[in-house]
Amino acid sequence: MSQEHTVPAEVVETEPTEIPEPGAVTIVVPTFNESANVRQLLHQITEAVPARLPCEVVFVDDSTDDTPEVIEKAAQDCPFPVTVLHREEPVGGLGGAVVEGLKAATSDWIVVMDGDCQHPPSLVPDLVATGERAGAGLVVASRYIKGGSRAGLAGSYRIAVSRGATWLTKALFPRRLHGISDPMSGFFAIRRSAVTAEVLQPLGYKILLELAVRSRPRTVTEVPFVFQDRFAGESKSTAQEGLRFLRHLAGLRTASPVARMIGFGLIGLTGFLPNLVGLWALTALGMHYVPAEILANQLGVAWNFLLIEHLLFRERRRHRRWWDRAGRFALLANADLVLRIPLIALFVHQFHLGVLSATALALVTTFVLRFAGTEALVYLPRRGREKPARDGRTARRAV
Ligand SMILES: Nc1nc2c(ncn2[C@@H]2O[C@H](COP(=O)(O)OP(=O)(O)OP(=O)(O)O)[C@@H](O)[C@H]2O)c(=O)[nH]1
Ligand SMILES: [Mg+2]
Predict the structure, then answer these.
(1) 247 vs 310: CA distance, rounded Å
(2) First and final CA of the chain: distance in angstroms?
(3) Total domains, the chain
(4) Is the CB of 101 under 6 A from ligand 1?
(5) Residue 173: which of 242, 247, 253 has the closest Cα?
(6) Which atom of ligand 1 lies at the shortest distance from residue 87's CA?
(7) What 3-state class would DSSP assign to 122?
(8) Ligand 1 probe mutation, 149, 236, 244, most atoms within 8 A of CB
């Protein structure tokens, strides 16, 4: 492992770490308050891996408990190098932690696995061997192929959620996830040359999905595995993580401009609902329909703004303050209304279109203009003004 220190004051070093041989594996383990599990995990790795494949273990830790200290102690009994990268700021949650581990790894192969012993380390050499044999860039440990099982997934609710998420994800990315039966798996091996860390924008759980969609390893293969019970401690997977996952899916699906434009259009359509409800309420309160139309339209604009902020341009918000973005967005939305009537008149009088086709053409034109305007004037980074993404303070300990 490289010995560069991001935060020198906090680095604790004991033995110098060995450089793993080429062909070895770096096992990346994200941990959040897993002090009751890490000793057992290192024990299982010691039993199952080094005799078959030289390895090193990199924990990327966001814990608020004593997990790093427990790792440090347990590592003294390990016949392989162990490193703890402790992050002060857990940027990107679990996914961000894994990316940090991928960047730190120096071996040809990297295996990512959980820190709670749900992923059997005995499979690590098999994952790498399968990848080598198949010339694959990515090997997924799958619960959903013959020989695999999700035995350790507690409760029918968790099983249903996991199944639903898998189905939705596969439906949204049929091509990218072709050949991956378990895109929700947190256990996989990836060739270091297949990792393009700079394009990854992880958000919470499901880092495999992020890698499969954005890094696009050429050949992908799978190995069955039996998902074990958690050894100890509590699950960190919450309903809030579920919402984060949906936002992540939306961000991944709308990464290309065409997909983003379709998303923009669909969100625009949903905006009719608050618009009409607002119009109904205001006229029911006795307001004249013209001011009511204008006010209700603003309700639709606000609705659309909230949705596109969270679903479409999540990654591009930090270039302007929220009120600047909201103001620009509202201006564009209202300009769209003002522009539509003269455009229809132009199409009817100059190009002799019928009123209906002129209206349809004006709607499409203003929609495309509004989308392009939103991309360029609201969410395009200003040159030289882009703030570097915060990668948090990370203390590296070779133990
Ligand atoms: N570094 C880091 N690790 C995390 C974070 N959230 C979860 N983890 C780790 O990611 C792994 C998977 O989290 P779990 O809570 O076990 O999620 P799960 O396996 O889907 O849920 P269970 O089946 O209930 O265990 C564990 O090793 C966690 O400690 C985080 O924010 N940062
Ligand atoms: Mg778990």
Answers:
(1) 7
(2) 12
(3) 2
(4) no
(5) 253
(6) 1
(7) helix
(8) 236
Q: How far is it, in rounded angstroms, from Cα 119 to Cα 319?
A: 40
Q: Do 370 and 279 share a structural domain?
A: yes
Q: Per the domain annotation, does 85 fall within a domain?
A: yes
Atom 23 of ligand 1 has which residue's CA nearest to it? Answer: 153
CB 307 within 8 A of CB 251: no
- In a domain, residue 389? The reply is no
Q: How far is the CA of 114 from the centre of ligand 1 (A)?
A: 6
109-126 per-position pLDDT tens digit: 999 999 999 999 999 999
How do residues 285-325 score in pLDDT, each as one tens digit?
Answer: 999 988 898 899 899 999 999 999 988 888 788 888 999 99
pLDDT bucket at 16, cuts 50 / 70 / 90: very low
Residue of higher predicted confidence among 253 and 43: 43
Q: Please name the residue that has the structure tokens 């935060």.
A: 7
Question: Which domain range does residue 13 map to?
Answer: 8-253
**Could you say which of 226, 253, 280 is where a domain stops?**
253
Task: Decide: 94 in ligand 1 pocket, CB within 6 A.
Answer: yes
Q: What pTM was estimated for this model as a whole?
A: 0.75
How many CB atoms are closer than 10 A to CB 343? Answer: 19
Residue 392 lies in a domain: no
